[in-house]
């Protein structure tokens, strides 16, 4: 048995649980006799420049606390990645100590379907769009070397696509999710008959609809006159205005209304953290 933890670069540098886990690595009652940490390092975490996200040059520097060896490897070179992973596994088996593999790579698209990285990382993403994808780069090399033929490569791609398509089709047949064993058991007597927790009461927090509409309209506008705004962001603001008109809210607009209503009462709101500047959270 070998424990492998997969991390993102910003998470590895920023989550306290990573530091805590390293400090468990050599405790007699907690050790796993060495964990392999694989960091998928796209160099911006979610949307943030590294200089805004951490104080050390590498996201993996936190591993120095237990003197774990750290291998930085170019993820565009699959053979180098395989070599480094073999060395990491051998280190772990030989010395029963933690080891870190830092896959230095990039993310071709956004963090999720709502994220457009050109908003926050335009220079980086101009470079990324010019990059040949690693699969094509490596396939071209193997075909040029005569290791595989173009036909063999295309058959492998088709086989993988087929596996994904068949799994997707099968997923539509599942009508019942068997996840009860993942969920906590309900606590008897915790709620009263109206479904309210017995020991807690919440004061009413509602506000008038015209105030919500006002906040929605402000949150859908550009505060500076003649400010040239990115067309993608204009589309988001238009959609937000439309939602306000239709008395519908999504998560982001709900947050605007919460913050806006607190501000209207003269209470200062300060957001701090990696992704607040572009309004992600």
Automatic annotation (TrEMBL):
Residues of the signal peptide: none
GO biological process, one term: tricarboxylic acid cycle
Residue ranges of every copy of the Dehydrogenase E1 component domain listed in the record: 2-179
One Gene Ontology CC term in the entry: oxoglutarate dehydrogenase complex
InterPro entries attached to this UniProt entry: 2oxoglutarate_DH_E1, DH_E1, THDP-binding
Gene3D superfamilies xref list: 3.40.50.12470, 3.40.50.970
Presence of keyword Transit peptide: yes
SUPFAM superfamilies to which the protein is assigned, alphabetical: Thiamin diphosphate-binding fold (THDP-binding)
Organism of this sequence: Upupa epops (Eurasian hoopoe)
Keywords associated with the record: Oxidoreductase, Thiamine pyrophosphate, Transit peptide
Entry cofactors: thiamine diphosphate
PANTHER family xref list: 2-OXOGLUTARATE DEHYDROGENASE, 2-OXOGLUTARATE DEHYDROGENASE-LIKE, MITOCHONDRIAL
Protein name, UniProt field: OGDHL protein
Tree of life domain: Eukaryota
